Amino acid sequence: AASASSSSSSLQVSSSIIISSAQLDSLTASKSVSFSSQLSSLCLNRCVTAKHGKVLRVNAVIETEANSNKVMEVDITLSPRVNSMKPSKTVAITDQATALAQAGVPVIRLAAGEPDFDTPPQIAQAGVNAIQEGYTRYTPNSGTLELRTAISHKLKEENGLSYTPDEILVSNGAKQSIVQAVLAVCSSGDEACLFFSFFLLDPLCFFSVLIPGPFWVSYPEIVRLADASPVILPTKISDDFLLDPKVLESRISEKSRLLILCSPSNPTGSVYPRGLLEQIAEIVGKHPKLLVLSDEIYEHIIYSPATHTSFASLPGMWDRTLTVNGFSKAFAMTGWRLGYLAGPKHFVSACGKIQSQLTSGASSISQKAGVAALGLGRAGGETVAAMVEAFRERRDYLVKSFGEIEGVKISVPRGSFYMFLDFSSFYNRRAHGFGEISGSESLCRYFLDKAQVALVPGDAFGDDTCIRISYAASLPTLQEAVKRIKESLASLKTA
Q1: Residue-range definition of the domain harbouring residue 428
Q2: What distance in Å separates the CA atoms of residue 372 and residue 366, rounded to the nearest whole number?
Q3: What angle do helix axes 475-490 and 381-403 make, rounded to 10 degrees?
Q4: What is the pTM of this model?
Q5: Can you give the residue ranges of the Aminotransferase class I/classII large domain (predicted)?
Q6: pLDDT of res. 329
Q7: Each residue of 196-217: pLDDT tens digit?
Q8: Which tens digit of pLDDT belongs to each residue from 289-306?
Q9: Which of 163, 169, 213, 485 lies at 20 to 30 Å from 236 by C-alpha?
Q10: CA distance linking residue 149 with residue 164, whole number of Å
């Protein structure tokens, strides 16, 4: 029950940076600082701190009026680490589309990154059994020996990778595995430096993390969370968004600590062929400091003749690769929150140390379900194969349909359940009652407004020319979405 005691609408900080806004949640200075929506009506009255002319921290103090009518000061400052991060656009768009659907708007939601299938009944029943049998207590921090042994067997049989259970860490989803891996091996180096948002210092004081773009939205933000610097390696749609080894070699420096690879890819659906991975491995091998995080969460959602190669299986790469995988995508278990990391014990133990102070072990119920999932057979057996075949049919339909739209450029997905389409030829056009289409974000807002189809703008993935479409939806739903998109594109006029 706090109320603002001042109507001031501007806030000054050193180095001649001025933040002025009527709404705190849209404050910007170089990048953005955001405050919770509950504070959006409160006014800041003090911002301090600078050192050697460089802004290090913004202190925000509000005055509130307690029940006793006594004015009190409350410091609502957020940490530089939080201020340097952006919220996930995919989550934001998914939430917006869900809210519209709940309000009765017939929105077609093609933004979420999760299968539209139910968890296979054998897996679900294993979870039910765990509850009914009272298997509901804490598990070891690293995961149950039963599950880690099953993962070890899976990695050996399917990926050609030899890991003992002690070299595997089970976490609450693959995202947690990635965060912990980056935190474990990256730092800001010897200098206490901050970057992005208000933190305008030299990024070379960081360890850097090499990320091929387009990238999963969370990679750069996870890197910033670790006080490291993301270095984006551009790819081309004409190359199916695959990393050119020459580009990689040209961007490696003495600060390069980690290369993140995702194959099959989110958001592009690209799959790295073994020959290209071998070229990348040869380059990585020249740099003792450089490690590789291989995100293989979509490994089973792949379309023949494409095949999956685990990076750690390449000659000389086991010792420097952290392999991340999980159960969410292939087994339609997104809500079960179960992932894992495999790698040299030295690194895995470090990640386990972080996890022990964050969440401790993953859900006991989910881990029993994970054991059942790995018991379905190689690559998930017939259950997963049927799901992948449905994804293939949908992909083929979308490739054909968007290929018929003049001006849309396509890279045919070889895996995952996403298409990353170049719509840039429709930019700088206008729509009646909407305004100008200036980029991927405004085009996605237009599709949501005009066609009532929720998609994700490519700028969230580092490529503003494109838009990501998730085909984790039924074929009739996709057919209706394509119809609406075509009609809305036809309504655009040259600006």
Answers
A1: 89-117+382-494
A2: 10
A3: 20
A4: 0.84
A5: 106-485
A6: 98
A7: 222 333 444 468 999 999 999 9
A8: 999 999 999 999 999 999
A9: 485
A10: 8
